Amino acid sequence: MSAAVAVVVVFFLLLGPLACGGALTRADLFSSESSTEDAEAIEAVRRRIARTRPATGVDIAVGVAGNGDRIVAVLLDDGHKWTYAHPLDARPAIAGQVIVGSGGGEIFCLDARTGNKLWVRPTGGLPLVGAGDDGRYTVVTLGRSGTARGSTLLAVDRFGDVNRQIETDESVGVPAVVGGLAFIPWGRKYISVFDIVAGNEPARIVFGERVSHAWTQGGSIYFGDAGVYRFDEHIQHAPNVMDATRERASHLMLPPRELPGAPVLLPPAEERPKLVATVRDRVRTYVRPGSSKPGAAPDEGVLTVASSRYYATYFRIIMGFDALRGRLAWVHTHASDIIGAAAAEGGFLTCDEQGQVTFLGARQGSTLGARELGEPVKSCVVQIDRLALPAERDRSAPSLASDLAEALRISDPELAAGKRPLIREIASLDDDIATKALIDASVDPTLDPFVVADVRAALASRRKGASYMLSALRAHYDFLKDAVKPPPVGPIARAFAAMNDASAAPLLTAHLLDPATPENDVQEAALALTTLARPSEAPALAQFFSLNYASAATPPIQSAVLSAAQILVEQGGKDGRAIVERAIASQMTAPDLRARLRALR
């Protein structure tokens, strides 16, 4: 890590009024040469913070509307809405009780509850990365223009005066501010505690994993990126989180599991929040830290996951997971893409591109309420501090399989690859509806071929839902009736053969004679019929054999012909054996096929 902090004279000359106020008095704030931590110093900061709990943040959703020139907001407790017109070059940041935005060569700060402007400062066009606020000071991280590496930090008071300005070549993340102390993430593993008034660094915390965000919530301070740390009496043990011989830092890491789109919990500092929501915003994971001692001080008790749920979004699909084992608990299919969200006590709040904020219950994903921003938005940010959702009523239906089936029915090519983990999830369910969902997915024209292969394999392994499989076999390709794809005959045939259920035999035989049935499905159906066929299927199988033995040019059809011959020999009686003998004697039968037919005698 290069370039210790410096107050750059050229920058002052460029920005003029921005630079007024105090200057940084310590030159190694972001220097790796001073990369050690002092447990006593960290504890002194913790005791100081204990006397000044973080201010309660406003529960709010904020969106970018219009042509990126207007902020729209709705308070989540009472539904009050406000707007603020201003050119924007980055997504606004919610920091406790304020909203910070940038654009038009300046940054501005708004009262989160009213939308009233508190102050504005010139920036020279530097884009906003993130902000923290404690009710007295707002600390803002600004990125460099274009792809240039480095950051600018400003500490601004409620009068709009810049008390501190810090320049660094490091990528600095999103800060938090409590009691005049700024907790500043940088270098992917450091939190520098910066005293805004004194202009020094009273403590530094070094982490064993990447950290890019600091924030306050529910009266506690947290740091995180892939996981979450709580700032409490155990924080000095963060570097030893993997060392079982020492007391560990209070740390949360979500259970490892496959999720659609490989979402992240918090984006790294290098990924500056865009004005318009990206795929990264549509595919995210969310968690709210909690405590094992409800009602106690925020940093007491074991750090847990609130409501024992964490959440993931994948465009229009929202999933709730068991926080202990990572098992999927419910799926909610939304009307439009989710571009912002936050976890709350008792549930999950989503903000979609149409400007609707939806309240979902933690346990079952039931819809508990909604707020409206009033218009479509380009991006959205949600902050929840103290808001608790109402209790969720038990629902008798639908089941998890039904939830998954609804998600799989979304006809959108953009979602095709992300459905793959959902298919594996539904294949593991012991539920008849799961079988129907797999059948429906198998004929979905928007699914990627690799995903369809997963669906077919999952369907072949099913031992439940025979009635749905029989219903599927009764359908045939019929363009005029909008049946544009034949049913998954092969996997269903394998499933019935494994169950030794002969009820499918007539329907499978009918698909052998259907020219729309794919060759591989013909092969699998014929093989299954060697187990399932009865004498009543012999006439139709004789017809199939007679039509194909002389023209079987591909391996799947040759295999199907041999399976049909086996059934005719075993169950077709004298007439069936005679049909096979005529094929053996015929000069039209290929020599290799003739030899294999002789082996059936």
From TrEMBL:
InterPro entries: Quinoprotein_ADH-like_sf (IPR011047), WD40/YVTN_repeat-like_dom_sf (IPR015943). Gene3D superfamilies: YVTN repeat-like/Quinoprotein amine dehydrogenase. This is Uncharacterized protein. It comes from Pendulispora albinea.
